[in-house]
Structures are given as C-alpha cells and as structure tokens.
Amino acid sequence: MARRKLVYEGKAKILYEGPEPGTLVQYFKDDATAFNAQKKDVIEGKGVLNNRMSEFFMAGLAAVGVPTHFIRRLNMREQLIRSVEIIPLEVVVRNVAAGSLAKRLGLTEGEALPRPIVEFYLKDDKLGDPLVAEEHILAFGWAQQQDLDDMVSLALRVNDFLSGCMMAVGIKLVDFKIEIGRIWQDDFMRLILADEISPDSCRLWDIETGKKLDKDVFREDLGSLSEAYTEVARRLGVLPANSGPAVRPHLVN
C-alpha cells in the first residue's frame, strides 16, 4: 500500500489525504489526553470504539437530515470523510451543570439547566481554548452572524438527536462538544457537522446511578476508561454480539 500523505495530527485523531479529491481519511488513535494534554495515556482499543460510535452517531444524524462530513467507515480505526474548512470554534451544548460551567457560575454539578445552553470556545490549544462571546466571533471574523445562527440551530438539532439516543439506553447527555465546517457546492457555502461524536467529546452519566461513562473517568481517575466506553458502545448496540456479554439497557421511567 502506498504511503499516505499526512494532513494533520491532533491529540486523538490523524487526518490523511483521501483517495478522491475533496476527501480525507480520519484515523482514531488510542491516545487519551486531559487538561489540555497535561495528562496523557494510551488506552488500548479506545480508537476502535470511538470510530464505531462516531460512525453510529454521524450516520444517524444524516438519516434525520443533519449534514455531516462522514461518508463511510473504512476499517476498525478509519473512516472516509469530506474535507471541510473547519470554523475555528468549538460549539458546546450543555443540558446539565458540570465541568467549567459549574465552576464558573458556582452551580452544583448535576443541576439541570433551565434550557440547553450553547457556548463557543476558540480553538487554540496554546490559549487553553478560551470561552468567547458572539461579539468576539463577529469582531475578529471567525464567523458571520448567519453562520452563528446556523451553528446554534445545528447544535440544538444534534442535542435533540443525541439526547434521545442516550435516554433510550439509560444514559443522560450532560453536555457535548462539536466542530462545524464549511463546504462549497455549486458556488454556495453550507455548514456541516465535522470532527467526531464519541465519549471523548460528550459527558455521559448513567441515569439511575450517576456513574460517569465518558472521558471524566480518565480526568478524575474513576476507573477504567476502556470499560466505560465499551459499556456505552454495548448499550447503543454498536459492538458486535460476539464482543462479550452485553450490558442490558436501563429502563427509563
């Protein structure tokens, strides 16, 4: 096999030049990082699980009309995606007080928010991905007002879909992060969902017990990250039946 051209390497994924113009191959690594990569480890199999779960969510979102960069999964660690111009913002949707929001506003972790809250963070590791207001985004030209309106609308549609998926298997969607990119079709620009959706980019708690099933397990040394991600994948029906004993979904009252 010919050596592929590396386009970009991040903390959890590598992007290679795709087989066709306008495509990329996204490779999921086993690396786990927290606190802006100050804490690092390699979790065997994490990349395989995230590849499968991101495929599951991206395909499901596309089926309900949410445009995504996902084309198809290629193998256990790679998927073919559309090349997009990433808007330099992380879009965070919060349903429950946790993480930096709880600390910033003095909220109790686990407190339900009055409605989903959408926040924007500048994608800049050197600055620690700071929270930014719409005024900053417009003033510095990172996105236009119509882009922001469309990004909020897209993020809330993703929230509705993910919340339903998770609730059906006894998991509470606390919050999540997405990235959005621009593509051009027939001289028209449109925004589509990019990057990934996995427990790396979501906070997920068991509805009945409050057990954390996301990267906070690694951040807070709460146990095995691999076991937490595997449980989420099994509940969603993403893992093959012969992958081990299935985790029975909790019933939601």
What does this structure look like?
- With 253 residues, this protein is of the alpha+beta class.
- The protein has a domain at 85-224: D-amino Acid Aminotransferase, Chain A, domain 1 (2-Layer Sandwich).
- Helix content is 28%, strand content 32%.
- The protein is built from six helices and 14 strands.
- The strands form three sheets. Strands 8, 9, 10, 11, 12, 13 and 14 form a seven-stranded antiparallel beta sheet that branches.
- Strand 1 and strand 2 (13-17) form a beta hairpin.
- Helix 1 (46-63) runs parallel beside helix 6 (225-236).
- It is globular and about 50 Å long.
- Mean pLDDT is 93; it is low at 244-253.
H/E element sequence = EEEEEHEEEEHEEHHEEEHH
The name of the CATH topology of the domain at 85-224 is D-amino Acid Aminotransferase, Chain A, domain 1
For the report, how would you describe the main beta sheet? Answer: 7 strands, antiparallel
Supply the CATH superfamily name of the domain at 85-224: ATP-grasp fold, B domain
The fraction of residues assigned to DSSP E strands is 25-35%
Judged by helices, strands and strand pairing, the structural class is alpha+beta
- Average pLDDT confidence is 93
**Gap between N and C termini, in Å?**
52 Å
Shape: globular
CATH architecture of the domain at 85-224: 2-Layer Sandwich
Radius of gyration: 18 Å
Given as residue ranges, the uncertain stretches (5+ residues, pLDDT < 50) are 244-253
Task: Please give the oligomerization state of what you see.
Answer: single chain
The tally of strands reads 14
